[in-house]
Amino acid sequence: MFNRLSALVVATIVLAMAVPQAKAQCATGSVAECCAITVGANTTLGRAVLNDLGLNPSTVPGSVGIVCQSGSACSGRLCCTTTGTITSPIGDVAVAAGCSPSPA
């Protein structure tokens, strides 16, 4: 069951990242990110990611992106102030913090 669920999640992420769209325009100091998962910074998962990045969850506004690609074009673009990589049981995962929706 776990292997099927893992395969489904990976396939969904790959398909979501492959959909071409126009590139994001982010303000200076932030990076356009395409993330498969977006959670609030104050959620359990959001706080865990921020802690792994060495950031204080109480000082990071916005959302946290998980499984991200910088500068990619996608439909759910985010503008994020911090990017990094965390190590998980399935390997290294690109993440982003301080994210807000990208202007169209």
TrEMBL record:
Residues 1-24 form the signal peptide. Keywords: Signal. It comes from the Eukaryota. This is Hydrophobin. It comes from Dendrothele bispora (strain CBS 962.96). The lineage of its organism: Eukaryota, Fungi, Dikarya, Basidiomycota, Agaricomycotina.
